[in-house]
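Run folding on both entries below.
>entry_1
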Amino acid sequence: MRIQRNGLIKGRISITNGTNKEGIVFQGIPYASPPLNELRFKKPILPKNWTGILETTNFKKTCMWNSKLTNRNHDPSTMSEDCLYLNVYTSKYCINQGGCPTILYLHGGWFILGSPNSLGEETLIENYANDNRKIVFVSINFRLGSLGYLSLNQRLKLSMNTNIALFDVLGGLEWIKREIHVFGGNKDNVALMGHSAGSTAGIYIYTSQRSLGLIHKAIFISGPIVHPYLENANENYSRRLSIISGCSNCSTNWDDKNDVEKVLNCLRAIEVTKLLNYQRAVDEYGFRIFGPSSDIGEESFMIEPWNKLIKKKAKIPILVGGTKYEIVEGLKAINKFPNGETTIILDKVKIFCESYLSLYQLKNKSEGIRLCIEEYSNDVNKTIDIGDDFLFYKANYNLCNEAIDNDSDVYLYKFTYNKLNDSIKGFQFSNTTPFHSNDLVYLLGEKKNIFSNNDYIMQKKFSKIIVNFLYRGNPSSRGIKFEKYTKERNNYFVVDLNKDNSFIGMKNNYHNEGITFWTKTLKEKLGNFNEFTNDTEWIKNSPKYFEITTGRMIKMFVYPDSYYTCTNKHSELKRIETMNDSPNKIIYGFIRGIKSESNSKSGEAYAYLGIPYGSTRELRFKEPKSVPKWNGIRNATGNGTNCLTKSAILTRPINFEMYSEECLSLSIYTTKRCLQTSSCPVIVFIYNDGLNFKNATAVRERFTLGNFAKEGHNIVFVILNFRSGIFGNLNLNKNLPNLSMNTNVQLFDITLGLQWINDEIINFGGNKDNLSLMGYFTGSRITNMLRYSKRVEGLISKLILFVDSVDGLDMIDNSETISRNIAITTGCASGNTSWDSINEMESVLECMRNINEFELLSIQVNLEINGVNMNTPTIDYGESSFFQYNKNETFYRKVYIPILVEGTFFQDELTDENLDDLFVCQFFILYDIRDSEALLLLPHNSNGTQHDGKIFNLLDIPKKQCIEKLKETDYASIHQLNNFNYKPTVDYYQGFTNKVEGIYVVEKLNDNTERFDIILEELFSRFLLNFINYGTLNINEGAATNINVKINNLMIISDSYINESKFDSIVKNISLQVYENILESKDSLFLSPIEHIHNNTNILIFINNTIGKSNISSDNMRFSSLLTIISFIHFFIFT
């Protein structure tokens, strides 16, 4: 045969076994010139003419691919960069008579692998290319992976094209228009048909105006349309490829055409096998080719944005369908046990939800994730469908409806035939059969094995649907009643057989539940939203998403040494991950951390220690300044100097060589997963043992890594150093706004640290939009006060308050009195000093700034011994103040974010004598003695004094009896600590019974831990992780809800949780009943109006009331726990 443009070709006759069908086969016809050298990364050009007869009787080599994301055998000897060939299957009838309908088929393979060579020649002839069916079937090779979808900057007019693979297919369609008549095909009746990634590519081609007049029908099988609005898809991947290849470095300007052209020339010069080895490495780091992108511009493939193109699609018939189950990603989120029971893994469901929703511009992403988890975590069958619903069924639904809007005839089907048995090579039957691509054995002969009679019947009838559609644009014929798709019915044809071997036929409501959630429910709950046009959010989630879906461990991206050979330092922030000693680049310069493996349970973690975030040089008593940039690589491999601290309470010796006024540093602990994704939640920890002293290095790395920065938990944990005591809270006169000092210097320090973290945490794997500020002991008081300043608005998204969560706004403000006492003691002021005189105040300040810092510390300690303690930060106001408004305005301007409050309520050993002298949080203190029904409430007024000197007993138990019960108990308890049985586990502060639970989160625990300690540690970390991730404690795998006093719902957390997976209905009923009774009781002290809760702030209360050894009944324990939580809720209403 002579191809009109190029020359003679020779094919062969093929006769099928058994059915004796005859077809004519031409394999390896060039439709474009080899895309080599300067043609790499360019759209194809026409093939050159040849002389003589070109042998086209066997397949040519497939297009190059190399990926570890598949188990398929990778054999470079079967591949070539010279691969732009197609294959034609026709018949004598078509060649002699002409005018036969034509199919161009696009194979699948994740856009990175595959070829048409896997199709079954006999099946293609039996189904299409014979004298009865009279179809011309064409399959095509097109470039894959980086060779087919490289995109360095599609906004520049470069010597390359984006969407090269689509241009290849377009070249094939243009070849068909020119040449298919030679093979008996009708150039005016061409159907584009694709499966999986080939279907997705086909949908982009069908949507682009470039295909107008080239295709007249379309068949899309199992094609996921995930990100059609992404205009920069593949840029991140492509640039990483260029970095690993040594073709770009940290000075490459991706917006500079000359820079990018240099990268292109370098990539073209690399031998193709080596280039694909680099591509494989990028895959192993958890980054993958997106496939087609919505590139824009005259030289692009799509030309216009997707939202415009879907309204301009060709008005041609389309046939859309797929299998009952597709890739069933949801199976990865299900644990199946040998006894047949299954459980749903919420963490994996969450990753799926985060990944899918990262494509949408949601106003409230966390709520969207919560809704998604709720939708797909209550039923195993729903969980299985999560990926198929989003990736496939929703895509089919949208595709059908968009085509109807363009007045096209649309037909939708679902292949549910599951009697596959031995028909497919390597097939194993499961509950999710038929699976993605199982239908191809009947349509295309892919992986065909041994057919039964039923299999042959299915092949004949199923392929008849395709043939009917090719001839008439309608799949129907005698015995096949295939109705058009309508929006109202969402109707589809079931490709499956009745007992009489007839088709089951039409049904309504195609995957209705899942489609409704993704297309309607989310918008009803969250409001309308648009898709992102860039891939930033998706990239953050892709490594952990691909690790789950492929079952392969994702390696951390390692930047080669060549990356750091920069010739030009740019000032903009560059996101660089780290591995071992590879430095990070932050806005201030390069920084190198250390790899840490604190213990076996933590796994690999990475620490960046002592990073300066602010400078206090010559700024004593003033707000800090940002640190200057540095040259070279800064080592962040050891803790920075501690801020000056000393207290009379602190008995352990201090090495003052480790302390300095220039101390504003932070330490970051992260994981390789976080570094890959830059999407991990962040905890910023405010540690404070007292208002005069603290030491961030007291937090043991074991617990930082064990509870937060470890694989599986993946929390980026940040510890801040900030000034405290006299250096952090000096306040000589807050009403003098023009003094050369700031009140609340401590809070200014922390706020600058939060700003630094928001700017830089992405470089250490953190998501600044999910940043929890966690305070411990007096650090929780400081943390709580921060939310009353608009200076932190937008810097934090949640609060976690441990132990001492008193609201500082209602504390007695005596910071001025204390500060003035210090000034007088130093000799810088006297009893005659005029504290309202700016000049005199400046003289006092100058004097105090000239005193040696350690001398100031000694004065602070001496005053403390005499009962003068530095207080909390003060509510200052004025332009240069921290809070800026008066007390009342400050209260109503506070930042409304979710809050988790946790505390131990045994503050000291309780006796009758010391009962009235106990320090109280603010309004009341609880003593839950865990025995019988005894519960004491000691309410206090806001000034900290006992309310009327009375003891209020909710359960009508006399005071004496309650105290006696307290004295009699001697069992080991985390909260019942009368005999201090917890001492063996704590290194110091043995008298601080009100902060014992801290040893299970951040404190120093020694080696005398028991199994119970380990259980509690895991319990604490789990609750914290759930709150950080979901904004809820998430008890019983998502069963718990946030506390909301408006609907009187409660959550009980007790020791029974350690031993039981669920609470019984009786306890739940009791909780609601008792809570209502307390609210309605006339004798109740809790009369604070509910409307004091402003703006629907989300509050969670977690009372640590867990017992170590006790024989107390669980019902009493739960009841007692309930009252504890109820009371603390009301405490928070007051505050």
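>entry_2
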Amino acid sequence: MVTFKQIELVGFKSFADKTVIPFTDGVTCIVGPNGCGKSNVADAIRWVLGEQSAKMMRGSQMLDVIFNGTEKRRPTSFCEVTLSFDNTSRIFDIDCDEVEMTRRLYRNGDSEYLLNRQPSRMKVLTGLLHGAGAAKEGYSIIGQGRIEMIMNAKPEDRRAIFEEATGISMFKERKADAERKLAAARDNLYIFLQRMHEVEHQLGPAEKAASSAIKYEELYGKLRSLEINTYIYQHDTSAERKQKITDKIEHYNSEIERLTARSSEVLKEYERCRDVVSGADDELAELNERLLRYTVGIQQKTGEGKVLQEKANSVKEKLRSAQEDVTFSSQRIDEIEREIRRAEAYNEKNADRAAKLAEECRTAEEELSALSQEIGKFEAMNDENRKKVMDTFRDLSDLNKNMGSIEAQRELLNERLSEVQSTLAEIKTLRDGYKKDYDESIKKHGELTDFISSENDVMERAAKDVRDCEESVQTYTRRAYDARSQISSLNDSLATVKALRDRFDGYIYSVKRLMTDAKAYPEISAKIQGLIADIVTTSGDYEVAIETAFGGSMQNVVTGTRDDAKFLIEHLKRTRGGQVTFLPVEALRPRLEGESIRSARKERGAIGYAVDLVEYDKKYDNVIRYLLGNTLVCDNIENATQISRRYPRAFKIVTLDGDVINSSGSMTGGSRKDNAGNLLANERRIKEIEDGIAEKKSALARAENMREKAQAELAEKNAQLESLRERFQSSRAELAANEQLSESLLKQLSSEESRYSVFAQTAEMISSRLAALDDKYSETTRGASDLNERSTEASSAIENISTQYDALVKRRDEKLEELNSARVEKASLEAAVKSGKENTERLTSEKEELINKIARTRAAIPDIERELEELNRQAEHSALTKEEQAVVDDIRGRIKATTDNKVATNERIKQIDIERLELHKSIQENTDRRNNQQIALTKLDADLENMQQRIMDEYGEDYEGCLKYKTEDFDIESAPGTVASLKRQITMLGAINPNAVEEYKQIKERYDKMASDKEDMEKAIDDLGVALDEIRQEMLRIFNEGFAKINENFKQTFKELFGGGRAELELDYTDCEDPLDAGVEIQACPPGKKLTKISLLSGGERALTAIAILFAIIGMRPMPFCVLDEIEAALDEANVGRYAKYLKKFSTETQFIVITHRKPTMENADTLFGVTMEEKGVSKIVSVKLSEVESRLGGDTVM
């Protein structure tokens, strides 16, 4: 039954015209002379089956498959090949009785795939072909290259043929893909674990910050409720409280007026009493003068009187001193009262000024609020105008895009018009040329008959040279591909290691944060000398030991000085970057090795002093010796234990495996994770990878250099071969074509006339489209002009608004400056008022002390006067006569009466002073109370306004908005204390990140997802490992089963083709660890010869053996059709006959399309098609009989 019904070629390689080749049951042979294009039929089939390699299509690029023109034909713009199959037996998984698969390629690089003339994809076509066992990777098309590969390949390379035949090639891709995925999954898991560790470090601080944020929100909510309810209460009760304060102020004013009036009355009485006292003092002075005269007489008369008089003088001096004290104190009291009145007047003036300033501040704040609202309006207006400008710009952009699109269309149409006009000119030129060519064709016919003679030998040698060059190119290409793959793998590894180093993987969060900041800020970077891993290197053998010896110090940061460390610590505090340990070079003191460790270095297993095993800049000597001093490195834990016993607690010991015996005697050790971080190894790994890359690049350069040379040689050989083919082809084609040239030229002339008419109509249509586009472009240009005008108007409006906005901002700044000045002056005046009150209180206290002192002195004066009177009386009795005594007594009586009157008046003055003091105190107290109430009244308005502003600023609510937070039964008494407590709690929380809860949620979700992903990744790795093992087992099973069948078929096929003998296939496991890598060796024993390897057979025997293997493979996996491209070329006549008969036998199961030169193959064919080049460079199919082959197709068609 026919499976492959026909192939249709249009513009494919040398098949310029539409060509259809029908196929029948059995064997269809395609024959023709060398260079006629018969192998292009096989290429066309391979191309539709999905071939993507230009090299496999015998070209340098895929566009080479499009007919490239001849001297008389123009190149075609596309090529197309269609394969038609009978699907009544459903060999393809599609519900159609006939399946057509088409591949089309345009010269601009676009390509199309069609299934039953409907657009499809290559993947769909190749899937159907795979399902039917007819894919390009299989054995649907077999050429000489496949034969040569079986014959000449190495056993390990030959295995690929059998893997392809047994169908495990797809498994190899799956296996390689699984291995890549497994390696990538492990790398990804390692990097993922590092990232997960970093997220884990972020989780704790984020949770704490979220908790603080939640607590803050709770406290803030309570504070908002309290403050808003306090504001509501203050707002609702402000009028009532103002009235109470006003009533109090009026009461204090009336009381002050009453007390002031009484103080004036008391002052008048006080002045009258002072006048009385002053008159009494004058009278007493006169009386005392008269008494003094008698007293002097008494002093002169007797010594006893003299003594008494001296006592009286002493008492008199005492009395005078007391009276002076009273006078001085009274004067000081008057001065104090005057100072108090001045101070009170000054304080009242300052208080009035402060109240006025408070009013000015309130007014200024209202003006500022109004200005801010105006500024906000202007900003909104500005934003609206800017939006208009942006909308205009967007519209302009759209118009410009449209104009650009129209312009691009105009350019394309102009280009197309130019092309059409150019084509018209070309057609005219061609039309004129065809007449001239017709005259020349007759002359040329005679020149071509003498040329074709020795083509076969020349072409065979040239073809062998090309095959040798192709093999060299393939060899060097494989080497270059391997080198590139290795370089790519090394580059991936290098990028991974560098990324881990640059991200500071392995370091704690705070160190990573600090080093990241150092990259961004030069002032931080300048303070850091480096990490321990940056300043220390060591051999790879010692990395684990040295890093273990450093321990946690690997996370330390080295600085030059203490100041640098201090600066960095302050930076960490400011940024909440955690804690880092710093090692200032100048501050550290090295730990010197002791005598014990010097002796221990000679013990068995001791490798050396840790300091001696590392390399570093000597300026860090203090740091390194401080960290590694008194540390010994040993080879293993057993020897380390022995040394520690011999030198107990003398020094620290570290083994190469990372076990530690501390100087305290404690031991640390155990297994280490394979992927445990080794910070010291990063730079070494990077250096090793870079060296490996350099080495592979060198190898790549050598391979590419050799490949280029081989390609150049191959191109030269191909050019020579193609040149030979073209010479022979062109000669035969021209010879065959000359007979029909005149007719052809007439047809082409007519065709060009038709083309000229079509292109003329096309030019006219393009011109009309260009005119329409010109009109559209003009209309778009006018629209752009209108939009530009609108944009200019909006920009002008923005400029005007900006001017007014700037003026308002300037006024606001000036008013704010005035407000600040007024607030400063108000604070200064309030301080002055307070100071004045303190001074008044001090003067009042001093006045009270003086009044008390006057009272005490006045109370003592009568006693002094009585004492003086008694002394005078005694003196008088001793010295005066009765008459004189009577006069003195009279004087004394008057003195006493005057003195008594004075004392009584002074007592009244004392009472008046007390009353005045009390009145002053009352007036001052009432004044203070009134002032306090006035301040409270001002403060009430200011506090309410400030509270209103705070509520607006803090919570964005006005009074109406606050009412939704109102709480019934609000306790105003406890609110201030609770507010203060809440504020203290909020302050104690510190800085709050408002996004902390969301960030913690995101981090927590990310961590939980990462934990889940980690499990998934680990499970995926396990699954990939299991899948890889299953793939390997399945590959091994399928290959072994298929190989066994092929081997059995090969034994039988070999006997039939060779007419006896024996042969077998063997798997070569030499130098092979994986059974899937075993090579395939071919053992063959033609009749009459010994069993030997295929490489030792003759060329013909090797070729026939290879053909036997191919038939064995086809027998194991029968396929719907098979294309054989001159695979019997190397066989002699007898073997070709056997091959042809066997092929005929096999054709009952598989439909064969055979491209051949050999007569025995043609004799066994069911259908015979010939390929000829009647026109130079253009192939044509003709149906021929065997007897007509040489006469119709050429003498070299049959060999």
